[in-house]
Amino acid sequence: MSNKSLPAAGIKILLLENIHPDAVASFEAVGAEVVSVGGALDEDELIEQAKGVHLLGIRSKTNVTERVLAELPDLLAIGAFCIGTNQIDVAAAQNRGVAVFNAPFSNTRSVVELALAEIIAMTRRLTEKDRGMHAGVWDKSATGLHEVRGRKLGIVGYGNIGTQLSVLAENLGMEVLFYDTADRLPLGNARQVHTLEELLAKVDVVTLHVDGRKANSDFFGDEQFALMKHGSIFLNLSRGFVVDQTALRARLESGQLAGAAIDVFPEEPKARGDKFVSPLQGMPNVILTPHIGGSTEEAQQDIGRFVAGKLRDYVIHGSTSLSINFPQLATPEHQATRLVHIHRNTPGVLAAINSVLAEEKVNIDGQTLGTRGEVGYVITDIAASPTDQVIEALKRLPDTIRVRQLKLG
């Protein structure tokens, strides 16, 4: 089969921030043209680089703003090859008919394993022992070293990561308490507490796994650190902007906290090798890692395959399964012509679409409608290719955002 006859022929894709090669292979297998860039791009660079691009793949360091979206009229969808999507103006994307997909599950295990490794390392004070040995100091004292068995773990945010961490920590003999703003079903013997203050007062280890919503900005500061038990340990593998790192340093210096592990920061370098600055640098009882919670080869491969699959299914079949800003329609493969109509969610749009098709004597084989917030999404399968007049008539409907024609032979 020639490349021109493949289902994604003519689709241009830009992948940033070292997205896994399996994603590239997945797109190229269906005939898409792929350009990969190693690092993140700023707003102006992104606008220039993504002109004419239909699909954009990013990770956490590239911001897709309303201005970027306004300058990229050909853009059909964005794939966040990570969990978080706060780097994307999701509402603006929805208003412009741009679907957004992410990877909510693929790197969960990697984040959980890093958290467990850091809990054990800090409880045993491995970083301090390691530095001493490299400096030629033999300190075989057991003072301040503990097993994790029997200690209390407090999980803030009991989502995909928090629940899996809960199960594995319990298997290590830890007692698990968690706090979440929503009621959650506890796994194993974990117990939900009703306030953050109650959690902080009871546990030996606090680990944050909250999402990137703006309301979580400065969520954890000196007031919260003051409520933690003397000698407890703190971890943040969620979002950099949720923690006051200056306040954390002060509590570490005072001895109230025995250690901390931080994987995310309010401001992070764009590319490997760029200068990094944090008030927590140079502290022997702090583990700093460069946002690698999900950075294992296994996780990145899974994420590459998962998000690429969602983008591929969207552009070829119109499927919006697991989109975070569109109605979720898992559509079957089609053998005829498929019309996709994205519109503002107002009464009467479906009737208007069908009126256009009826006037042009277009026979409908099947039709599906979904709505989500301000946007509606209609998939219509028809027996024969529509004329340009039909497409233009659909585009002229008052609430139309975007019309796409998909065809498979």
Please tell me about this protein's structure.
By secondary structure, the protein is an alpha/beta fold. It is 31% helix and 20% strand. The protein contains 13 helices and 16 strands. The strands form 3 sheets. It has a 7-stranded parallel beta sheet, with helices on both faces. The protein has a 5-stranded parallel beta sheet with strand order 2-1-3-4-5. Helix 1 (21-28) runs parallel beside helix 11 (297-317) and helix 5 crosses helix 7 (160-171). The radius of gyration is 25 Å and the shape is elongated. The two termini are 13 Å apart. It is an enzyme of class 1 (oxidoreductase). Pathway: Amino-acid biosynthesis; L-serine biosynthesis; L-serine from 3-phospho-D-glycerate: step 1/3. This is D-3-phosphoglycerate dehydrogenase.
Which labels suit this protein?
16 strands, seven-stranded parallel β-sheet, 13 helices, five-stranded parallel β-sheet, alpha/beta, elongated, 409 residues
Percent of residues in helical segments? 25-40%
Class by SSE composition: alpha/beta
The H-and-E topology, N to C, reads as EHEHEHEHEHHEHEEHEHEHEEHEHEEHE
Order the strands across the largest sheet as they lie in space. 8-7-6-9-10-11-12
DSSP helix count? Answer: 13
**Spans of 5+ residues with little confidence (pLDDT < 50)?**
none
Mean pLDDT: 94
* Alpha carbon gap, first and last residue: 13 Å
User: Based on DSSP secondary structure assignment, what is the total number of beta strands?
Assistant: 16
Shape: elongated
Work out the strand percent: 15-25%
| Main sheet record | 7 strands, parallel
Radius of gyration: 25 Å
